[in-house]
Design brief:
Strand content: 35-45%
Shape: globular
Structural class: alpha+beta
Oligomer: single chain
CATH superfamily: RelE-like
Strand order of the largest sheet: 1-5-4-3-2
Number of strands: 5
Length: 84
């Protein structure tokens, strides 16, 4: 089992999101603690460190894995997440 750490960006997004969306995203993030490399995970290219993403509807969750910790870097809509 892995532990989670959320960045200030991720926490801010979850606090601003409506409750149903935040709940859906957190449920998906919690499943990463069972398997941080799910089959639908995609590695983000052109980054110094290994950054992965998972989809939750129209939203993307960016994260890194430094065993045994999963760092949630950012959460945002697809159109915005890659331009930060």
């Amino acid at each position: 089992m892995f532990s989670l750490e959320l960045s200030s960006h991720a926490i801010r997004f979850l606090n601003k999101a409506d409750k149903a969306l935040a709940k859906r995203i957190m449920e998906r993030i919690k499943r990463l603690t069972e398997n941080p490399y799910p089959s639908e995970m995609v590695r983000i290219e052109n980054r110094k460190e290994k950054v992965y993403r998972i989809r939750v509807g129209d939203y993307r969750v960016l994260y890194t894995v430094d065993l045994p910790i999963i760092y949630i870097l950012d959460i945002d809509k697809r159109e915005s997440i890659y331009h930060k």
